[in-house]
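Recall that a protein's primary structure is simply its ordered list of amino acids. Everything else, from secondary elements to tertiary packing, is in principle encoded there. The following example makes that idea concrete.
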Amino acid sequence: MTIKVEVWSDYVCPFCYIGKRQLEKAIKDTGYEGQIEVEYKSFLLDPTTPIDAEEPVISSLAKKYRVSEEEAKNMTNNVALRAKEVGLNYDFDKMKTANTVAAHRLAKWAETKGKGHEMSERLLQAYFLEGEAIGKGEVLLKLVDEIGLDTEEAKLIVNGNEYNEDVEKDIYAAQQLGVRGVPFFVFDNKYGISGAQPQGLFEQTIEKVANEAGLKPTDK
């Protein structure tokens, strides 16, 4: 028997990568590794972002919140500090806005090859730590190659519409749950956590759900 955790997230959402690390740490620290199945679900923070987007994230944030670029930079500094707490070194100066529709479709495809988790991790790492333009086809294919999947097959996914329906289903499910922002975690269809909350909340929720399911920690 396993616990199911569904995670709605987007590859350009800074708190999604932080939340992912928190969930991973909570699973390890509570001793339920191997008893929890994590499923990543698609969410688009801004579907209107152009496919060929090149705008620096700092200037995009300044426009969105109607603040100066210096103020936007200060906002990102706080997020970068939070990321550091979970071992992630964000580089907002390198980041550019990106449309993530193709990235989400690619992750759905990678899932069918047993590499959905690797694809998701590589996309987040490429965007937040390396400043890669994950909205661009050539970048996506390079990442596919790096995790050992077929780039020719991936090219058809990137340039086509396959898996669009799966992405839309995830977004619709999020709407039905009333999800307004990501990350959003659902534990065994019972409990939800919205955002990158304090580490203890992830651990308490896992322990509560595991206890209700009659599971015991395997490694503590």
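The mean pLDDT is 95. The first strand starts at residue 3 and ends at 9.
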